[in-house]
Amino acid sequence: MYLITIVLYNKNPEDSSTINSLSRLTTEIKNTLRIIVWDNSPMPFNDSQRNTLSNKLNGINTIYRHNNGENMPLSRIYNLTIKELQNNECLVILDDDSEFDNQFFEKATTAILKHDDIDLFLPIVHTSDNIVSPAYMYLFKGHYFKSVKPGIMTTKNTTAINSGMIIRARYLKHDFEGYDENIKFYFTDNDFMSKYDASHQSLVVIDYHMHHTLNFYQRGEEFSKKKARFKDLRHSFLILMRRKGIAVYLITVLYMFIYSIKFAIIHKDIRYIFIR
User: Fold this and answer.
1) Mean pLDDT of the region 221-243
2) Which of 7-11, 228-232, 259-263 has the highest mean pLDDT?
3) In the 8-state DSSP scheme, what is residue 249?
4) 169-173: which pairs have CB atoms within 8 A and are 24 or more residues apart?
């Protein structure tokens, strides 16, 4: 009933909270799952790592794919995964650092059966003290909700993060135009949400709370890596805002410049202001 996609990068299976969460699911739940593990690491898993992955995901139909050393964009990975969806399945997108238990799938199944006319189902995702998904986004500015009520929610001005999304195959395989592969890593979720909103008025918030980490905001990463992340974020964000018209695009360009100043202050590194 579910096809799960997970992307790993330079991470051992036992260090992924997502894989550990999957390993603890009951046999009944595991029997409803298929998993594709996409490995973007420079080198594929060795025999020990492959055995660990197999043991962790024992009882789940699992495919491991190393992307030949390419850090393949999420948008391309998701498009490739959609091609492998069966018509009776839902796609579940999970980052490598999410935490959940049996109730995530139990409550998702209940919601999916109850709302046959809706194609998108979201858990309530937390990081630290904030609810980060679903969230509110108007034009170029996003805001966190202080609280989210489970049940039917409007798609208007609503966005969400990838991890935890559950999407029906009927929409992805027959109506969805696909992820924009010019948007590589950041804002693939916003790309999806904007396209879903164009054809749907509602989504369902599952009565389930999931913990997640927003890696972009973690400190301590070396400048070259953070610079690459920042450039990808800005590039993808501007593609999205260009769709909303030239006025919104130009305001976003100014907003991103101000954001780079704020980012430089937070990280105490003036070089972020001059990233192009």
Assistant:
1) 80
2) 7-11
3) H
4) 169/85, 169/86, 169/87, 169/88, 169/89, 169/90, 169/91, 170/87, 170/119, 171/119, 171/120, 171/196, 172/82, 172/85, 172/91, 173/82, 173/85, 173/87
* Residue 215 scores a pLDDT above 70: no
Q: How confident is the model at residue 267 (pLDDT cuts 50, 70, 90)?
A: low
192 CB-contact burial (10 Å; exposed 0-12 / middle 13-18 / buried 19+)? buried
**Residue 241: CB atoms within 10 Å:** 23
Rg (C-alpha) for the chain, rounded Å, is 19
219-231 pLDDT, tens digit per residue, is 556 767 777 777 8
Q: Which residues pair with 203 in a beta bridge?
A: 153
Report how far residue 135's alpha carbon sits from residue 146's, in angstroms, rounded to the nearest whole number: 10
Q: What are phi and psi of 115, to 5 degrees?
A: -115, 75
Angle at which helices 246-267 and 223-242 cross, to 10°: 160
Query: How many C-beta neighbours within 10 Å does residue 96 have?
Result: 19
